[in-house]
């Protein structure tokens, strides 16, 4: 029923400058997307072979989590060589093929840049260790003598986000800073060589055709002068909003201004996307001033419950914060660091409703691989298969990030469900046969077809996509209703049906709409009206 009207809408708005202002960006987690060589680990050739799927899904761009040479102490967020591909994922030739073929399909590619820290196997760090205290390479990291008589205490009281002290002592007695795992030493961003190296890395990937960068821990690069003690006993959370001496320091903005100059040297609207966990949406907006980056993940939205009032607050707050800097608001529900939103919200109905709400909002949206299949978090992984470094540390960052990283099901009745011909690095649940791409394709009630329809309408409908505001309409408690031009979205966040006069003709509904005047429980409906 709902798709006929959508099909009658004009197709494609074309490619305009500022594509990122309304792009739907799909996050591929390379280890878990598609495995071409049967080693149980996803790879670049797997990604290349599945680009047509992403095209058909209807996204505009693909963000690839790291595929660089890495010992994989933090699933590739520990980079040993920023200009090389890890053999587990393929070769530079394969990366080039992914970018070229994506472009041929009119899909953009955003690569993940990890500038806060590298791997302890990075050449600079190895050299710094070899050469000892006081040598120049040590200055590119944060090496310090310890405290206490024999220097046996860490230089300050900071804790790693993965748990345990943020400092590790090396055999010659000095300590180095790592906000994450000990295998991830933090760079010293005051050092000109670090700054130069990253501008050069940006150019390397821009020359290869990358359309932008997702900037890992963008808020962490600059530390407060003197690395002052925190002075409180509190475990740090990457996903938290605390004000901290190593996050969201004003000095980071200088770095992004210099990167923007590099991005702007290249034709074709290349972008920078900040992963910045800051205390407020206004602080996040500072990364998006016109001479800095283009987008930032909206973690305030991701942290909002399935509750009309809270959602409306988060939506208004996000839009209000971005308006003064002229940046698009982004929306995100899931990624490789958080519990999948189907599980967070407690049901598939809510997950589907949340997706339609997100895709109706003005700006750009992020979709994490598998959410279009309605995948739940895998909560019962045996300890021996887990790889999240924080799992092995007490009290660290939730420690349970493996459950959202399980390889996605493509087809077939048995694991690995077309993910590859071998196994899969994390076991997939038996119920996932019914959630595979093949199982859902062509089933109008499936979540995959819901996403496909939503993305098709979003692309075609003049009122959807870019924008910086919504017009709220009166609605009963627990219901959100807003208008954008001749488009209306209603979301019932309660667990009972709610009566509301139909604001127009239904275009798409996350749950079967038996009566147009009765919004089903936990549902979102798109209306033409
Ligand atoms: C990434 C995580 C990673 C951390 C350290 C992030 O925020 O998304 O997956 O563990 O940075 O690089
Ligand atoms: Mg493989």
Automatic annotation (TrEMBL):
GO terms for molecular function: alpha-amylase activity. GO terms for biological process: oligosaccharide catabolic process. Residues 27-401 form the Glycosyl hydrolase family 13 catalytic domain. It comes from the Bacteria. Coiled coil: none annotated. InterPro entries: GH, GH13_cat_dom, O16G_dom_2. Belongs to the glycosyl hydrolase 13 family. This is Alpha-glucosidase. It comes from Streptomyces xanthophaeus. The lineage of its organism: Bacteria, Bacillati, Actinomycetota, Actinomycetes, Kitasatosporales.
């Amino acid at each position: 029923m709902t798709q006929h009207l959508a099909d009658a809408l004009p197709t494609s708005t074309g490619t305009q400058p500022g594509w990122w202002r309304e792009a739907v960006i799909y996050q591929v987690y390379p280890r878990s997307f598609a495995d071409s060589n049967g080693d149980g680990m996803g790879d670049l050739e797997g990604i290349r072979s599945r680009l047509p799927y992403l095209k058909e899904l209807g996204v505009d761009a693909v963000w690839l989590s790291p595929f660089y040479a890495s010992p994989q102490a933090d699933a590739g967020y520990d980079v040993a060589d920023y200009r090389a591909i890890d053999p587990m994922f393929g070769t530079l030739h394969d990366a080039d093929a992914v970018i070229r073929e994506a472009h041929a399909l009119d899909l953009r590619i955003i690569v993940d840049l990890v500038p806060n820290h590298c791997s302890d196997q990075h050449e600079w760090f190895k050299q710094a260790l070899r050469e000892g205290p006081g040598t120049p390479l040590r200055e590119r990291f944060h090496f310090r003598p310890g405290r206490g008589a024999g220097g046996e205490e860490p230089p300050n009281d900071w804790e790693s986000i993965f748990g345990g002290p943020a400092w590790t002592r090396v055999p010659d007695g000095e300590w180095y800073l790592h906000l994450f795992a000990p295998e991830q030493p933090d760079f010293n961003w005051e050092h000109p060589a670090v700054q130069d190296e990253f501008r050069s890395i940006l150019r390397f990937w821009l020359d290869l055709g990358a359309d932008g960068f997702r900037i890992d821990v963008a808020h962490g690069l600059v530390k407060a002068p003197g690395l002052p003690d925190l002075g409180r006993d509190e475990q740090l959370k990457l996903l938290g909003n605390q004000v901290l001496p190593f996050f969201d320091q004003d000095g980071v903005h200088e770095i992004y201004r210099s990167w923007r100059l590099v991005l702007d040297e290249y034709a074709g609207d290349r972008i920078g996307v900040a992963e910045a966990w800051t205390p407020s949406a206004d602080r996040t907006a500072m990364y998006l001033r016109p001479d800095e980056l283009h987008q930032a993940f909206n973690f305030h939205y991701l942290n909002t419950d399935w509750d009309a009032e809270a959602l409306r607050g988060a939506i208004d707050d996000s839009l209000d914060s971005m308006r003064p800097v002229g940046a698009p608001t982004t929306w995100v529900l899931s990624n490789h660091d958080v519990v999948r939103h189907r599980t967070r919200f407690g049901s598939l109905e809510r997950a589907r409703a949340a997706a339609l709400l997100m895709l109706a909002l003005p700006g750009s949206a992020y979709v994490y691989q598998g959410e279009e299949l309605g995948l739940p978090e895998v909560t019962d992984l045996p300890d021996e298969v887990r790889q999240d470094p924080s799992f092995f540390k007490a009290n660290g960052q939730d420690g349970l990030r493996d459950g959202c990283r399980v390889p996605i099901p493509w087809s077939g009745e048995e694991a690995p469900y077309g993910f590859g011909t071998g196994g899969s690095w994390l076991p997939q649940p038996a119920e996932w046969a019914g959630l595979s791409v093949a199982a859902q394709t062509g089933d109008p009630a499936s979540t995959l077809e819901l996403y496909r329809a939503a993305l098709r309408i979003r692309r075609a409908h003049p009122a959807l996509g870019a924008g910086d505001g919504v017009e709220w309409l009166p609605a009963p408690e627990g219901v959100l209703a807003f208008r954008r031009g001749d488009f209306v979205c209603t979301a019932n966040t309660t667990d009972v049906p709610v009566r509301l006069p139909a604001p127009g003709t239904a275009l798409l509904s996350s749950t079967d709409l038996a009566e147009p005047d009765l919004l089903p429980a936990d549902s979102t409906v798109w209306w033409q009206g």
